[in-house]
Amino acid sequence: MASGDVLPRFFSVFLSHYSSESFMIPTSYYEHLPRRLPKTAILIGNGGKIWKVATKSIRGQVYFEQGWPSFVADTELKDGEFLTFVFDGYNRYEVSIYGHGGCKEIRAVVEVEDISDDESESDNNSGESLVSVTQV
């Protein structure tokens, strides 16, 4: 893919009745892609958390299936919230959530904790700082 090419992006309004267990990707979106969608996609939230989701074709429509319910639960999606999806052309989507107030919200934040100096000195003789990652 040439560096000047821009892949289509898409948005959707979340409706729990239709999208809690699976999420339909708009046909008009994937019909314009230069290649087929991957069988497994990575969703990256703006809070830093990552979800692995399976894509599945059902009667000519493509859905995020396995893994999607975890994304919904972890981000605490509510009816009427607006989602944007930016595809990297391979298998990753940057997903942004806009709440009812119209502002982009940070959800499912990954927190980084420093390990105390006592622990890092005994485990790390080089004197480098160690970092522990905890997903919330």
UniProtKB/TrEMBL annotation:
Keywords: DNA-binding, Nucleus, Transcription, Transcription regulation. Residues 8-101 form the TF-B3 domain. SMART domains: B3. InterPro entries: B3_DNA-bd, DNA-bd_pseudobarrel_sf, Plant_B3_domain. Signal peptide: none annotated. Pfam families: B3. CDD domains: B3_DNA. This is B3 domain-containing protein At3g06220-like. It comes from Camelina sativa. The gene is LOC104705759.
